[in-house]
C-alpha cells in the first residue's frame, strides 16, 4: 500500500480535473445560485458525469459498479472542491448507494444499485436532527403498526433531499437519543402520504432540505437491514462520506491557497509585491505546511477505508478534523490577504469560503472528530 | 551485494544475536553514549553494543568501507533503520561529526582530511562540536566576525563562538571564520577544522532556563590552525556551511524522531486527564492528531522520494513541524499536570514530573537551534511558494 496515487488513480484525478475545469467551472455554481435553480444542480452535467463512471466508481461490479475504491474517488472529490462542482455524488452514491450496499436486501440492491451506478436514480440520507452533527442523537420514532411501521419526526440538513427519488431515513425503533443501538433504516418514497420535503437555502448555494414525517406508514419492504442494528453500517458509510468531504475540503483549500499565492505575487502596494512582506510570507508558509499534513491524513484515511482496516475510523476522524479546521483557517486567511476584493460577491473567493464552512459542519467538525479520535485512542 | 530479502533476514538475525537485551529498551538522556577520544560507558552492555556496531561499520552504515563505514546502499540503510526500529535497538552512539561534518568531508574534503578524520568518526574515537553562531551572528550567520589571519602555513584565530553543543567535551571543532573582512559578507568566510587542544581556546558552559545544558561559549585567543585544515577552499566556506546546514536539518528531525528521549504524550498525560477536564482532553486529542499527521507526512515524503519526486525543499517543513510539535507537546503536558508540572527539584514530585517541567523549558531550544522556525518559514515561502525575497 502507498499514500501516493497509482497510475489508474492519477489518470482518474487528471481526467476529473480537466472535465470539471471545462464543464463545471465556478461560474456554473454561480449561475445555479443566481437563477435560484429548482434542481440546484445541472442534470445534464450529472448525466455526463455518469457516463464518465464516477457514480459507479465505488459500487460493486456485481451491481454495475467499477469498484475503483475510495482513494480514487477521494481524488475526484478533491477536484470537485477546486471548481465547487455541485453534484449529487456524495448524497446519492456514497451515502445512498453505500447504505443500500451495506444494509440492503438482495432485492433492494438489485433494484436500486445499478440505477444509482448509472446516475438514473438519486437517493438521499435523512439523518441529522440537532444543530450539531451527532448520528446517535436520533429521536425520530419508528413504531410497529399493523404489521408494518409508523414513522414520526423530522430531519434537517438532508443533502439533496428535495431531488431524491428515495430518502433513506434513520429512525429510532428502540432506546433513547444518544444510544447507538436501536436505530433502523427505512427507504422512503417522498411522495408517501405524511412526508413533507421542504427545500432549504444554504449559504453555499448547495442543496439541502428539511423532511417532516407525520404518521407515515410503511410496510416491511421499506426496511433496510435489521431493525435496531443500523449503527454499524451507518457509521461505516458515514466514514466514507467524511473522507470524501475531507478530500473536497482539501480541493477548496488548495484552490484558494494557490489563488492567494498568485495574488501576493502580483498585487503591488508601497511599490513592491505584497508577497515580499515577511509577515504575509510566514502566514502562507504555515498554511502550506498544514496542507501537506492534511493531504497525508486524507491519503492514509483512504488507504484504511479501502483496506477495511480497524483504524479506519481513527484515520477518517483525523482527516475530517484537520480538513474542517484548516478549511476555516485557510479560507479566512485567503480573504484577509486578498483585502477588499476578497469580500466582494463578484470575486469567486466568497463562494469557496461558504462551501468550506458547510463542509466543516457536515458530518462532524473538528470538535466532534477530536472527541471521536480520543475514543478511538482509548481516552 | 545480497538480494533484498536476504539482507533484511541477515540484518535481523545479526541484531537479534548481537544487540544485548538492555540495549533494546527506550533510552534516557543520561544513557546516551557520546563517542569521543574518551568515550564513557555506564555498563558493559553499552560497551558491547558500541563495539559490535563499530566493528561492523554500522555507526556510519552508508560510508565507504575504506573509511570504516558499512558500505551499504540507500535501500540497505533503510532496511537497517527499519530493523533497528522494529527490535527497539538503541543508537549505539551519538556523534555530531558523523551526522553533519562527515557527509561534507566525504564530498569536499581533501584525501588527507578524509584519511585523518573519517575513520576516527566511524570508529567513535573523535567527538566534534560546531562553531558557527556568534553573539552577533545568529539567524544572520554570515555576519560572523571571528577572525582568521594568515601567517605562513597557519591561520591565527581570534574571536568568540556561542551555542556550541558540548564544546567542553569535544576533541575537534568545525568552525566558520572570517578570512577576508573586505569582501561581501558571504564571500570572506572559511570553513576550518580546529583541534580543541590547541593553546588559546577557552570553553565556558552556558546555563539555560531549564538548568545545566550542553551549550557553551568558546573563546579564541591567538589560536594557530594549519592551513591544510581548510575545507572547500579559503574564502569559500559559506557554500560548505550551507551544505552542512541541510544535513543539520535532516539530523535535527532524526534526532527528535528516534534518537533523543521523549515522552509518549498520551501515556504521560493519562494519569492527570480526568482531573484536567474536557478542554484538555480535546487539546490532547489535537496534539496526538498533529503527531500522527506528521508521522504520515514523513511516510509520504519517503514514498515520494522513492518515486523520484522532488522532495528537496521539504527538509524545512520537517524541521519546522517536528520541533514545534515537540515543544507544543511539553507545553501541553506541563499544563495538563497542573501544579505538579511546576516542580524544579527535590522530593514530593515524580521524576517524570521534574522531567516534564525541565523539558517544557528545554524544548524551546528546538525551534531556535538549527535554523529557527522563522528561518524555515522563510525557506518555505521563497523556495517552495516562490514568493519574492
The CATH architecture classification of the largest domain in chain A is Up-down Bundle
CATH architecture of the largest domain in chain B, by name, is Up-down Bundle
| Low-confidence blocks of residues of chain A | none
Largest interface: A-B, 37 and 38 residues
Describe the protein's architecture and organization.
The complex is a heterodimer of chains A (379) and B (389). Chain A is built from eleven helices and ten strands. Chain A is α+β, with helices and mostly antiparallel strands. Chain A folds into three domains: 114 residues, Acyl-CoA dehydrogenase/oxidase, N-terminal domain (Butyryl-Coa Dehydrogenase, subunit A, domain 1), CATH 1.10.540.10; 105 residues, Butyryl-CoA Dehydrogenase, subunit A, domain 2 (Beta Barrel), CATH 2.40.110; 145 residues, Butyryl-CoA Dehydrogenase, subunit A, domain 3, CATH 1.20.140. The two termini of chain A are 29 Å apart. In chain A, 53% of the residues are buried. Chain B has three domains: 91 residues, Butyryl-Coa Dehydrogenase, subunit A, domain 1 (Orthogonal Bundle); 108 residues, Butyryl-CoA Dehydrogenase, subunit A, domain 2; 123 residues, Butyryl-CoA Dehydrogenase, subunit A, domain 3. Chain B is 45% helix and 16% strand. Chain B contains eleven helices and eight strands. In chain B, strands 1-4-5-8 form a four-stranded mixed beta sheet. In chain B, strands 2-3-7-6 form a four-stranded antiparallel beta sheet, with no helix packed on it. Chain B starts with a helix and ends in a 5-residue tail after the last helix. The model of chain B has no long low-confidence stretch (mean pLDDT 92). At the A-B interface, α7, β10, α8, α9 and α11 of A face α7, α8, α9 and α11 of B.
